[in-house]
# Entry
Amino acid sequence: MRYVLGVLAVVLIFVVLSVYWVSRPTPVPVNPPPPLPNSVLDQLPKERKGQVLIYGAYGFTGKGIAELASEYGIVPVLAGRNESKLKPLADSLGYDYIVLPLENNHDNLVKVLKHFEIVLHIAGPYTHTAKPMLDAVVEAGTHYVDLTGENHVIQAELDRDEEFKRANIMVMPAVGYDVVPTDCLNVYVADKISQPTQLTVVLNGSYTAAEGAQASRGTMKSGLEMLGRPLLKRENGEMVAMATPELIHRKENGREQTLLQIPWADMITSYVSTGIPNIEVFQVQEGELPPWLLRVAQSDAGRRVLGWLIDNFAPEGPPPSAQENRQTRIVSTVSNEAGATASAALITPEAYLLTFHSTLIIARRVIDGQWEPGFQTVGKVYGPDLVLEVPGVTRTDL
# Structure
């Protein structure tokens, strides 16, 4: 019995130490890295016009964007913190690269960004990565787009609108599946009635299902950041907290469905794009979220443990077969106080494939001179039809 208890004690100690090790905060460098040598800076483009930097290029989404860039006439420089992951990708695509940490590295970031017209910031979770990059683009005068779906990050960017205008740069968040298709569709339906006051968006991520379809590691970790924050919705022009998400049960084409309310970024971006004061977003729910997941994700240590598990055990992203076969469907409906309504639907390719294209379409627009200074949204600047430039997207009035 003593032997068994001894073994259990050793196992318990091992588990506690392991949890402590993976949940400890990542230390932020006290001292900044040394200045980049001129030999490195001299390898960067001499003239910034038309030059694109992809930061976070070796993640699943960054890699997909980098591989597709040439189809849009873009020859990017790839960047990130990990040379062992960055160099093989750059060599395989024939692009230059630069190793560039974000943490406590403002001066070097500014020096590098001054060589580029726009940075595609693909490294999340943006809770941690957005601010250092934004601080640098302001000083460098470099346009910025990202893929965040984190509402608190987008709000923080919106709060800096005047600062971005003074720097004469465009900052446009969420240029991927969050939120290009929804924002464009929302602008489209909002224009169909007078003074819309209510917007409801329903996302079906598996309209055409595909085996192996799942979120990438980066998306999962950004999702953890959102799970650890209050659930919000747009009500009478304000972001208000809800105790629990709303559930709607309905029949669609003879099949039972459950719609789960989610904190999609449109509650900020489409409010800016359309001015509609009441916005709710639902997704067609597949399975149930484990009750324990929300409790774990609401603690810093819990998010670090879950993040470690994602990094070490989750697939990098969906396989090519899922990208080729999966489709999503988005339905947006607006109404006004007079009782008028309008609805339309988008069918889109798989979310990551759409993101690869939409990011580069917008980058191409920027380097072609189509941009506006300050915090901007896709639908506001580029209109409802931009999403139709993504191969495989169709729109239907309902």
